Amino acid sequence: MELIIARNPDPNSTLPYLMRLPIGDGLVFRTKDTWPRTAAVYCHPVPLDEWPADPEVVEHMRLLACTRRGAAIDIVVDRGREQRSQIVFTTARGRDVVFWQSARTRKKARPDVRLPTARAAHIELLEIAVDAHERYAYRFGAQQVRVVVRALPCGDYAVTVAGRLVASVERKSLADLVSSLTTGRLGFALGQLATLPRAAVVVEDRYSEIFAGKWVRPAVVADALAEVQVRWPSVPIVFCENRKLAEEWTYRYLAAAHLWAETEAPAMARMGLADDQAAGPAAPEPSSAELREWARANGLTVSDRGRIRPHVLQAWKDAHGGPLVGQATEEWPR
I need a surface site. Which of 33, 84, 202, 215 has the fewest CB within 10 A? Predict the structure, then answer.
């Protein structure tokens, strides 16, 4: 597996090199340089047939890894220095662009600047679905969040994109974590969470507190925790020091997953690859309270109690472009 840099045979191009990556059938880019040493390198994706039949090769680089991760490609080269870099598919000034960057050039682009942290992933208002059975749920009062209550298939907090459930977070206190590990319930929960494109478990305590337990041998808990993480590596278990930090982590994680789901499909299309990672299950249905609120806001008459009339259900379906099979549990009071 190699990364190959060759001379660009087009005399009219301002990008003097061609780069070929072993992703899928191969990706070819015109580039400005052979490696992002002092600045990020602009790349222009071109069709595979633009790679010349007899290229003037400038450099062969043996690859230890060339892995697509969302809207980026991580590259690890087998050499002593300048081993790691990344191809990033992004937007700038409203245009789709591709940059080749290293850790050094990324740091130079942000020299010790503290970025604003008020909104995660620059999302103006993130809608987070809270499971209808979640007790003492996070309210995300300090964040730019709209909380809705849904009957989630797994996890306690989730986000949806284009009518699909794309990410979910399961919340655990330390006592609940220990109990679910020793009874085996956590394994079943992780198995269900692993069916989603993105999922995680957040624990409202420190990992060190496992070894302060009195009712279950700490080694038993630690071994069980390690075992489920090895068995379901796609669902990380994250320890936060307290409930407040766990709530903050959940908000940031779901915002990042929402952004990933929105950018994944366009990036895959530009790479010329098919990918089903972002295709989660159908989004959970709205609660009766939410349906009533929506109907009144849109000038529809709806009763305060009882089943929602079929014409209201159909109007919601038409407005949101998705199926609505039944009615979910009443909305959790906020």
Answer: 215
